[in-house]
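Complex record, two chains
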Amino acid sequence: MVEGIALGTIEILGTRIELLRVLISIAIVAAGILIARLVRIPVSYFLTKYAPQAAPLASKAVFWIIVGIAALSAIGNLGVELTGVLLAGGIAGIIIGFAVQSTVANLFSGLFMQIDRAFRIGDAIEVAEMNVAGVVTDITAFSVVLRRFDGVYVRLPNEKIFTSQVRNFGRNVARRVEVTVGIAYREDMNKAIEVIRRIVDEDARILAIPEPRIMVWDLGSSSVNINVWCWVPTQEFFNVRGDLVKRIKEALDTNGIEIPFQQVTVWFGDKGGKDGEDRLRLPSLNE
Amino acid sequence: MLREESLAYGEYVIEGDEWRSRVADRMMLSIKRVEHGKYVYERYEGEKRAASRFIDTSVSNELHLCIYPVAPVHTPQPANYARHLLLKFKDPLVMDTKSALECYIKMPVEVGIFEKYDNRVTMIDVLATKLMKYALYGMPDNGVVCRYRESTVYFKMPKAEPFAEAVAHVRLHNYLDRIVTVNMLVIPIEGIDLYYSGSEAMLDTVNAVIRQGVRNEVVDVKVEEGSESGWSKTHVNPAVVTRSYTMELGF
């Protein structure tokens, strides 16, 4: 409370302070507010560009930190002893720090994720460590919201995502569809490749460049395995994969090329008979 | 009364109860009036009905149909992944240092079916009379998906296949101090109005400048806006579109 004014001084709560100091303190606070406003503009611009979700909160934080520093400087200028205040503030800060540790971690993880730009709203992602996949519907200061592919809402803390491996299915413009087709050993591989190539060539969604690759990849236990690799626009990945498998199966059936079932040959040779005579071959389901 | 017309690009006023027109050998467009001001549009591919729309023209009371060549970026519907056309030259062009040449290439087009009302057109269907593929220019992480076509280079204006192709006039400039081989051009094509005459179509002149970029040699491709005499221009894209593209990932 102001109790009296002498020439050039002012008394606040029993402390006599020079009027000039008061004016300087007011100027410090005013300058702090001005600087804070000026700093907030480029910070807000930068964050809006690179971390739009965190921009409002972070620019406000920058503003109040600068104003806070200015206010403490102004109080110090008035000759008020700040050691006790700072000590109390420090202890309180530690206590609050422990209490809101995870919140702050989420906040900063969110900020770094925005700068990192691993994904955007609308991208389909998978967070491997958390075994969650879905479409990103919101990115807030503390969490990422996914709509899982089965329609379930999932909220994931930023900190967990930031330290996990994230697979972004929609980041690149094209993806490779891979299909393995097994044909029976007695079938003509070249004919099968020709049939599959026709299917691939007739699909407008399958990119001409990079050129689709159809090759005999493996001699499996029951079949000769042909790999089909073709690039498609990312949006068409699931549609093309589904259609491709269906159409290859239909085309192989039409051309009389057999896709065999798993076949197992069991041998009995040690006891109860001569080797080679008592071996029993189980017929395959196709035979 | 059934009217079957041989089709050309342009504007049609649908009169009578039924209108049919053949686009290609196996494609048929059909419009039937179901009642006053109400029509059913159908597209058949062979015997199969590939598309159908119900059109209400109760305000205007007559159906104005426009059939125009459009940029080949709409099919198979609902395709929405290409804004460019990658034209690969069957025979690469070898250009001398500091030289220029003019040539023609054929590019694919789609056929857009529009309803016109109050001088504005709305696409009601789009079709491709031939199979067209897409291609990736660049890498999956930095490239673009383009409509793809292999084209011969012509030095006289070739005849384009009706409802399937358009001709593009290309001007190439090599500003480099070395002989270059040009294998392809990537042309920004989305939202660009084409020209038509009868059942033929044409694109504005494509200007391609081969120059030294900051990191590597690049080609600046620009579709010059102009007017082709004797050809009508479609006006289906009111928005301003990007008509230039810099090929930084090889040519």
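Note: Chain A has three domains: 9-99, 118-168, 172-287.
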